[in-house]
Amino acid sequence: MNLRRRLAAEFVGTALLLAIVIGSGIMGERLAAGNAAVALLGNTIATGAGLIVLIQIFGPVSGAHFNPAVTLAALLGRQIDRHSALLYVLAQFTGAVIGAWLAHAMFGEPILQVSHKLRAGPSQGLSEWIATFGLIGTILCTQARRPETTPVAVGLYIVAGYWFTASTCFANPAVTVARSLSDTFAGIAPASVPLFVAAQIVGALAGVAFFGWLIKEARAQ
Q1: What is the rounded distance in angstroms from the CA atom of residue 23 to the CA atom of residue 10?
Q2: Full-prediction pTM beyond 0.70?
Q3: Cα–Cα distance for residue pair 88/69, rounded to 1 Å
Q4: Which residue, 43, 66, 123, 164, has most beta carbons within 10 Å?
Q5: CA atoms of 66 and 64, how far apart (whole Å)
Q6: Span 168-199, pLDDT tens digits
Q7: Are 21 and 179 contacting, i.e. CB atoms less than 8 angstroms apart?
Q8: Which long-range contacts (CB under 8 A, 24 or more apart) does 191-197 make?
Q9: Mapped to the 3 state alphabet, what secondary structure does 111-123 carry?
């Protein structure tokens, strides 16, 4: 398929994903009257539901990666070439930042922001490693066995990840960077970004290695 269409799908899909993540966080916080659990619940439901829809829309065009970690997994699995992968990642980071700014604009917030929400420490890094490891496993295993279930499986995994990980399951370097530019409920301080991104990349590599082996073993039986 035309590379420009694929890149447009990655750009717009990632932008919409960030608008959903940050916008629902702002809405949840405004309506929750100080109850962080209620705000997180609203943020969770919107993100999971939005992901399912976005993957259904853009999956047939670009594969609906919206995530450099997923693109890395596709590159390692030889599903995408290096040049296209690099352009995918650029489109994802650019779209993510635009999506954050759009969310701010929709809610009358200053467009340019920097988050002050620290998410530091080994537990946060471990959470992001596990979150990304599981996300890659969800994608690889559903694609290998029942690809039609991938959108719902990914959405449900992220919904669960919001609650079973201490980091609330970013599992996405582009999302992490964009959320550092939002001083809202979904934000992350720039100082916390390197730990998250490093854990996400290592988690993606581990996911490709383990679940790739698992799928290969299952096929060999």
Answers
A1: 19
A2: yes
A3: 11
A4: 66
A5: 6
A6: 999 999 999 999 999 999 999 999 999 999 99
A7: yes
A8: 191/118, 191/120, 192/117, 192/118, 192/119, 192/120, 192/124, 195/120, 195/124, 195/125, 195/128, 196/119, 196/124, 196/125, 196/128, 196/167, 196/170, 197/173
A9: CCCCCCCCCCCHH
State how far the Cα of 42 lies from the Cα of 36, in Å rounded to an integer: 10
End-to-end CA distance of the chain: 34
φ and ψ at 67, to 5 degrees?
-160, 120
Residue 66 sits at φ, ψ, to 5 deg, of 55, 20
Tokens for 31?
Answer: 């309506």
pLDDT means over runs of 10, the chain (221 residues): 94 98 98 97 98 98 98 97 98 98 98 98 98 98 96 98 98 98 98 98 98 86 66
| 140, 213 Cβ separation under 8 angstroms | no
DSSP, collapsed to helix, strand or coil, labels residue 188 as coil
Structure tokens at 117: 């929400």
Q: How many CB atoms lie within 10 A of CB 79?
A: 13
The token duo for 110 is 């200053």
Q: For residues 18 and 27, what is the distance between their CA atoms, to the nearest angstrom?
A: 14
